[in-house]
Design a protein that fits this description.
single chain; alpha+beta; four-stranded mixed beta sheet
Length: about 190
Amino acid sequence: MTESAKEAPVVIKKYANRRLYNTETSSYVTLDHLARLVKEGREFVVRDAKTGEDLTRAVLTQIIFEQEGKEETLLPVSFLRHLISLYGEGMHTMVPGFLQVSMEGFMRNQEKMRDAVQSSLGANQALAAFDEMTRQNLDLFETAMGMFTPFAAGTKGGGGDPAKRKADLQQRIAALQAELDALDKR
């Protein structure tokens, strides 16, 4: 566990004028500053200065919104559409956990790829393996998201037999795990 992970979360107060105040440094901060804290692995909570209401989720979403507005985007339009379609569908108890597990798996895969590249795989082999794993991660995520929208015709994973979709997802996970295991053996 890193030093910053052991520390208590930084408390950020959000005022009615939309200014953000870092109580640890006693200074006003920007969303870019909070994005840097996230990248550094530093935990923080955002509270309404007047009511004490937790605004962390809204501020993190605002950071994502600003990042997506820049030149380098991360979230495909189809993913955003799927995500929006899930609101109000009674999926609020299931989707967050699924997305958390999926992202953790994705991060583990990325870390294994970094380790494989650093352990002297040939540059071309490493890049090809990285590209393939990235494609598989995206396919897996798209298929999994399709499972949450069973009436979305024409999308990967949408429509059709739920058991078949589940079996397909399990098969993809097994193939991805086999590829990771092969990389670990190198």
